[in-house]
Amino acid sequence: MTFHEFGFHARLLDGLDAMGFSKATPIQEQAIPVILSKKDLIACAQTGTGKTAAYVLPILNNIVSTENRHLNTVIIAPTRELAQQIDQQIEGFSYFLGVSSIAIYGGGDGAVWDQQKRAMEGGVDIIIATPGRLIAQMAMGTIKFDHVEHLVLDEADRMLDMGFYEDIIRIIKELPQKRQTLLFSATMPPKIRALANRILNNPGEINIAISKPAEGILQQAYMVFNEQKEKLIDMLLKGNTYNSVLIFASTKDNVKKLDRNLHKIGIRSKSIHSDLEQLEREHILREFKNKQLSVLIGTDVLSRGIDVEGIDLVINYDVPPDPEDYIHRIGRTARAATTGTAITFINDLDQRKFYRIESLIGKEIPKIALPAELGAGPVYSPEVRTRKPGEQKGGNKKFRRKPFRGKKGGKPAQ
């Protein structure tokens, strides 16, 4: 389906033609008619499917057809990086429309705050904001929500994972009850359903099935004990010619520790985590994109927020807790019909998690033997996790969860 078939305003179509947009993606083809009909929407679609254009285009079409212009749309996003990306797309799409937008986020200096405040006071059509900074601007009294027609929650699952639920509800309470609400999420866990039931009114629903990993990705896994992981990374990186490596760890503490330890063994790396100032994070990302930095370490937030071509290797230092996060992580390599390698380290406790990943993608991922100098790793047995003799205190014991025998609210017996 082409964009000319949606009945868009002629000037919006001029912008699309100038940007080389012609054929709609599946999420765009399904979502745009629903949004044009003024119906609320809940859509499950991952990054890279064209979801931003799926909601931005019909909203722009609405704005350009409106005579009396006020603040029309509020878009809430989990991170500064995503807010900036959305703002840039809006700027491109609205080139011939005269529609104004501004990204509101934290992490900048006082000049950025003043710029955002002046834009609010001067009037703007679309706000793209992170929850915390939007609430700060609300407290200053610079934003008037009286005429808002559209609310968009982008990457809603990630916002809830980051603890923004109460902030989102607080913002929504300030908006007109009569509005169109659009919720986009890469996954659809129960907490997203609960949020949707609270804030959406008889919504349409779209579920773009999560894509399988690209055919160009060579997927491999190693069975390792935690104490073997860093030595294995050392061997993988020093024994190959990878120009661009992305390493995912499951917690901020693991990210920082791994970064320190890689430096000790002579591997130049940098890490991105919430303890860094925003300008520091942006500088590190620029280095990585420009190939000035070859090894970057981060958490799952990075898996959705980074768009870099030419990544040769993705290493899952920890198995991701959600099988769909695995898809997002390894999807950073083999982009644009290229090839790449994705390697996952599976310790004895993460076997069931990895088994769920294999079930999701419908294939078993080859388990590569550890280099002989590292010794033996765990045996892959998702149903019964075992350690080799001597690897666990107490010798050759099967490692199983014991049944809960404590009091209600207490801890399981050890």
DSSP helical segment count: 15
Please count the beta strands (DSSP E, at least 2 residues each).
14
> How many domains comprise the coordinates?
2
Uncertain residue ranges = 384-414
Q: Decide which structural class fits the backbone.
A: alpha/beta
Helix content: 25-40%
What is the CATH class of the largest domain?
Answer: Alpha Beta
CATH superfamily of the largest domain: P-loop containing nucleotide triphosphate hydrolases
Average pLDDT value? Answer: 83
The oligomeric state of the chains shown is single chain
What is the topology, as strand order, of the major beta sheet?
3-4-2-5-6-1-7
Under the CATH scheme, the architecture of the largest domain is: 3-Layer(aba) Sandwich
Q: Strand-and-helix sequence, N→C?
A: HHEHEHEHEHEHHEHEEHEHEHEHEHEHE
The rounded Rg comes to 24 Å
Q: CATH fold name of the largest domain, please?
A: Rossmann fold
Task: Describe the fold and architecture.
The protein has helices at 10-18, 26-36, 51-64, 80-93, 110-122, 131-139, 156-161, 165-173, 190-199, 226-238, 252-264, 278-289, 300-305, 323-330, 351-361, and strands at residues 41-44, 73-76, 101-104, 126-129, 150-153, 180-185, 204-207, 217-223, 245-248, 270-271, 295-298, 313-316, 340-346, 367-368. The chain folds into two domains: 3-207, P-loop containing nucleotide triphosphate hydrolases (Rossmann fold, 3-Layer(aba) Sandwich), CATH 3.40.50; 217-374, P-loop containing nucleotide triphosphate hydrolases (Rossmann fold), CATH 3.40.50.300. It is globular. The protein has 414 residues and is an alpha/beta fold. Residues 384-414 have low confidence and may be disordered. The chain has a seven-stranded parallel β-sheet with strand order 3-4-2-5-6-1-7, with helices on both faces. The chain starts with 9 loop residues before the first helix and ends in a 46-residue tail after the last strand. Helix content is 38%, strand content 14%. Helix 2 (26-36) runs parallel beside helix 3 and helix 6 packs across helix 8. It is built from 15 helices and 14 strands.
